[in-house]
């Protein structure tokens, strides 16, 4: 009990499983001759980004400049900022980033194009840009068609910008009922992007990058001709949300929340020292019927409800021997949100504690 | 646009409103001759704890040792740890805290009593303890009755422990339909505690502290004879959850999320640069029908759905002039969760930026 990992709640990362997950997705990309550019939002750690690149990833994806800054400082040399850059402060920060590492920026509005162009001008560095299109999620991105051609023209008018291609995010793959529906989503994602890329080429713009792929849709999207870059994120750890979608196996879930039983108010009830400030309130309950988490191999433990610092367990008869002080490891519903709530994780190899890693890009929402 | 506060998303704290909220709750406590011991989980900042104490609070409440450590180092001299202390590492940390500041610890199990007693022995400091009872929430705490008397006996057997009284948390006040139901909850909370305190006194234990009160129940609990300490937290900022419960006025909500419009995909849709990583997924939608947040005075803006880094707005016709780059301030659903997601807040006075404050006890879940 003297191991620092036992000061709970603590996020545990099984490096053997992480490596398996990284190899697994890299293999899918390699098998189809498609580039893998993992989204770093899931792990938020340069150590994991380096593992992904060492395994063959062509670079990483981030949403916010703050994430790019952390990874650039850590030596990651190819970063896609898949998010509109808007505002004076952000233009200056993007300019600084351009002098540090190779950046590709997503744009989907005139204002976004002007911002990235201004950063390029300030840094005196040409900037690669991708136009974000909406392939059915209804979040950001231009509708495919004339608007995209028009924005390509605006990009072409800026000396510091180089139009490289398109990106899209099929987030609707999280809201479909089964793998077959995810496959159809991936078909639309890739098909829409490929057709739009063709239109751009016909209009005289040399498109070389067609970037797609959420974790659920990536394995399907890789197999459909038309895209040449995948951006899955969650696959690196996996969670109950991905298991529910059929996109990750329970045995490969690499991130767990280690918690201590702190109260036994009734034979069928126990309380752990982790609530929404550790698990988050994101996403739907476990596909295994165990509430907000799942202790591998112990379906009799249901994480029934959470308050900020408490997790309430319902115990089946075979689990009622659980005592105050006992330690449990839970696979959470949404691993990205869990990582974003902790400053460090405990990494293990062969089940043994190895070290703590700082979640350096945690909370970098700006 | 050069003000650092405009680098969004940014959490804004209106100090004038914070002061009003602090005075308001202190007045309720003073009017009924009851001590106020605010829960610091809402603000997580020594600066705000000092304001509460300067206004008359008798000390503060925390859940985790990590929060107590931050506040003790910042000079807060009276801290209630309203959470079971379980585990070797935590005993040592509690012992260190006992030598720094005056700590009261909550207990509700033999294991918890042994842990606090061991910390007292290590520090050679007598520790004040409160027994936590369950007044209907069903989370932690002993059921009132013989179990409590028995635990009082165990406490009395430890030379380093001094039984001071009882505490309870009526979290069910968050799940009731109207203020009248909250009043009934407060009656049960105070009544149960007062009767249990009387039983302890009859059994020979001199009980001096009866500690109650969530933000919704506090104003009712203060008026019911039997308790002498209130522990509300959220009142200091307020949020849409409290407005829904009738426990806070919209005009007194002191915390807002400042966000920038980054995309205008359709006339009736806009996207801001803040999602669940800023707003959290906690709690139910706005009582004003505006989704996950509310822009004061602008009911035509609905924060319809969130992904991790995006907030999707539905715009009524009168709001369709909103442009990329525009700044909006949203009152969130659950302010405690929002504070826990940010490393710093921007404080304002008379609407002018004053400085950044670090959220020093953010993420202190251990």
From TrEMBL, chains A, B:
**Gene Ontology biological-process annotations:** D-serine catabolic process
Keywords attached to this Swiss-Prot or TrEMBL record, sorted alphabetically, are:
Lyase
Known SMART domains for this protein? D-ser_dehydrat
The membrane-spanning stretches of this chain are none
Q: What is the name of the protein in this document?
A: Alanine racemase
Instruction: List, in alphabetical order, the Gene Ontology terms for molecular function in this entry.
Output: D-serine ammonia-lyase activity
For the D-serine dehydratase-like domain, which residue ranges apply? 254-349
Q: Which InterPro entries match?
A: Ala_racemase_N (IPR001608), D-amino_acid_metab_enzyme (IPR051466), D-ser_dehydrat-like_dom (IPR026956), D-ser_dehydrat-like_sf (IPR042208), PLP-binding_barrel (IPR029066)
Q: Does the keyword Ribosomal protein apply?
A: no
- Protein family according to the UniProt entry: Belongs to the DSD1 family.
Q: Which residues form a coiled coil?
A: none
**Gene3D superfamilies with a match to the protein in the record:** Alanine racemase (3.20.20.10), D-serine dehydratase-like domain (2.40.37.20)
Please name the PANTHER family in this protein's record.
D-SERINE DEHYDRATASE, ZGC:162816-RELATED
Query: Which domain of life does the protein's organism represent?
Result: Bacteria
Q: Which species?
A: Paenibacillus oceani
Instruction: Say yes or no: keyword Cytoplasm present.
Output: no
């Amino acid at each position: 009990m003297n191991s620092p990992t036992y000061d709970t709640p603590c996020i545990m990362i099984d490096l053997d499983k992480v490596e398996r997950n990284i190899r697994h997705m890299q293999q899918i990309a390699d098998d189809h001759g498609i580039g893998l550019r993992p989204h770093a939002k899931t792990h938020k750690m340069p150590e994991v980004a380096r593992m992904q690149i060492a395994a063959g990833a062509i670079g990483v994806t981030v949403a916010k400049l703050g994430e790019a800054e952390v990874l650039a400082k850590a030596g990651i040399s190819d970063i896609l900022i898949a998010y509109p850059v808007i505002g004076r402060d952000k233009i200056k920060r993007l300019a600084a980033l351009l002098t540090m590492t190779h950046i590709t920026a997503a744009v989907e509005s005139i204002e976004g194009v002007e911002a990235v162009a201004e950063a390029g001008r300030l840094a005196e560095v040409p900037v690669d840009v991708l136009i974000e299109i909406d392939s059915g999620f209804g979040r950001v991105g231009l509708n495919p068609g004339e608007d995209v051609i028009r924005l390509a023209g605006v990009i072409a008018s800026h000396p510091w910008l180089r139009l490289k291609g398109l990106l899209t995010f099929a987030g609707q793959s999280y809201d479909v009922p089964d793998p077959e529906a995810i496959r159809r989503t991936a078909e639309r994602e890739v098909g829409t992007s490929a057709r739009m890329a063709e239109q751009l080429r016909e209009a005289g713009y040399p498109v070389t990058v067609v970037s797609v792929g959420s974790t659920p849709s990536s394995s399907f999207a890789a197999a459909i001709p038309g895209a040449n870059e995948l951006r899955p994120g969650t696959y690196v750890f996996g969670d109950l949300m991905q298991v529910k979608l059929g996109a990750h196996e329970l045995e490969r879930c690499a991130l767990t929340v280690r918690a201590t039983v702190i109260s036994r108010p009734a034979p069928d009830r126990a309380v752990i020292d982790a609530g929404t400030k550790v698990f988050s309130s994101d996403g739907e309950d476990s596909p295994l019927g165990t509430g907000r988490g799942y202790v591998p191999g112990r379906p009799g433990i249901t994480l029934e409800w959470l308050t900020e610092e408490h997790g309430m367990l319902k115990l089946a008869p075979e689990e009622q021997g659980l005592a105050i002080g006992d330690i449990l490891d839970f696979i959470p519903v949404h691993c990205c949100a869990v990582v974003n709530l902790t400053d460090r994780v405990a990494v293990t190899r062969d089940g043994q504690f190895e070290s703590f890693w700082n979640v350096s890009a945690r909370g970098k929402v700006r």
